[in-house]
Write a structure and sequence with these properties.
This protein has a domain at about 220-430: Trypsin-like serine proteases (Thrombin, subunit H, Beta Barrel). The chain has eight helices and 23 strands. It has helices at about 10, 65-75, 80-90, 90-100, 130-140, 155-165, 170-175, 195-200, and strands spanning about 15, 110-115, 120-125, 145-150, 180, 185-190, 210-215, 220, 250-255, 260-265, 275-280, 280-290, 295-300, 315, 325, 330, 340-345, 355-365, 370-375, 390, 400-405, 415-420, 430. Strands 11-12-13-10-9-1-23 form a seven-stranded mixed sheet, with no helix packed on it. It has a six-stranded antiparallel β-barrel with strand order 17-18-19-22-21-20. Strands 2-3-4 form a three-stranded mixed sheet. A hairpin with a 5-residue loop joins strand 20 (about 390) and strand 21.
Length: about 425
Amino acid sequence: MEPRTTVPRGRLRGLTIAVGATTLIAALLVGPADAAPSDAAPSDAAPSDAALTGPAVDQGIPGAALETIARAYREAHPEMSPAAALGAAAQQTRRRQLLSKITQDPATFGGAWFDPPSGVLHVAVTTTAAGSATAALGRDLGIRVQTRLVGRSFAELERSADALRAGTDALGSAADGNVGIDVKDNRVVVAVPARRMAALRSVPSADGVTVVAQSTVRDVPDVCTSRSNCNDSLRAGLILAPSGCSLGWMAHDTRTPSVRWLMTAGHCSTGVGVTWSTGGTNIGPLRGATNSGRVDVSFIEVTNPTYANDSIGRLYSHTSANRFVRLNGAATSMAQFVVGETACLAANATDLTGTNRCGVIGSVSDAQRRGMVRVDNEDACGGDSGGGWYEFNADGTRIALGMHSSSSQSCHDESGHSNFTPLPAIGSISVDV
C-alpha cells in the first residue's frame, strides 16, 4: 500500500482555483434559472424522431476548438462520421446550459450521460415533474434529450459511495476505497478482490449497491525525471522537481488570500517541507499531500516572489506566443461531470506539438480506480501525474476539472484510459477573483 500523508485540514480549508482577473460566477456551470414546464414524462423507450430534432451545427464557433472536440468523439467512436462528430461537438455548449439548470435541484437530478453516435443526452431524474421540465428545456435549446425515472438522486449515490469508502465494515475494508458510481444503472459499485467475492456475497449491503470483482488491469502513476520547462510563470503542464510530475492548477486560501498554493498529484510527494521547483526556479515547500480514495493531491505553498503576480489560471501551450492559454473556470460540483463528454489534459508529456490531447469521460466515479473520474481513449504518459484535466468547450473556453493521477501502462494509446481526482472531491473549492 502506498504511504499516505494527510493534508492539514485547518490550513487548507477554503481553497479557490485561480482562473482569471474577474469572478466567474458558478452560474456559468450551474445556472440559477428553473427549467421550463412540459407535459413530457420520463421514459425508457427509444426517443422518437420528433423528439430528436435540433440543428446539427451552431454558428460562429471557433473551428480549432470544434475540431478538437470532434476528433475526441471520433477516436472514442470510430463509427461516427466527421459530420456527426462536428454536430455533437457544436451542441456541447447547449448541453452544458441544460445541465446547469437541471442540477440546481440535487434531490431530482440522478446523473447524466451523453451518447455521441446518436447525439442523445440521457438524464436520470427522480420525479416525473423533473423529467417533464428537462424534456421541455431540451426542446427549447434544440438538443436531443431522453429522460429516465430512477430511485436515487446523484447526491444520494455520492453520499452512499463516500460512506463505503470511509467504512470499516467487511465490504468497505475489502474495497479499500475502490468505490464508484454507475450513473446509467443508478447504483453504487464496490470493487473487491476476486478471491473475496464468494465470502462477501452473504454480507448485507445498502440498497442500490453492486459488488464486482476488481479488475486485473493495472494502472501506473505517471511520473518521470526528464524534460526542461519554461519558468517565467506557473502554468498547468510544466514539469516539477524533485518528483518529475506535472504542475497542476493554482489555488488560493479564501481566509488568507495572500497564501497561494500549487496543486499536483499526492503520490508525487517527496516529503512535507521539501522545496519544489520548475525549470530550475524554486516555487516553495510542500505543505501536505494525500493519496487515498479518489483524492490524489499534493499542496505546495508558493513562496517565491517571482510568482507573486501569477494570479490567473494558465495552461502551458507549446505554440502560443506567450507559451500559455487562459483558464476560464473550474468545476464546483460532481453533477458537472458527464459520461460521454470530452476531457483534455495539460501535462508535461501531452503538449509537445501544441495538440490538445483529449478523451471521453467513461465514468464519473470508477469503482475499479478508487472512485476517480476515468477518461477513455486517452492514455497519459510518464510525467503527466498532477497535470490539469479540463473541459475544452466549442467556444474555446477551458474549465478546470481535476488533477491527473494514473493511466494504462502505455503512452498515448487511444485504446487506453486515464484517471484523475475531480476538483469537487478535494474540499471547499470555488472560483477565485
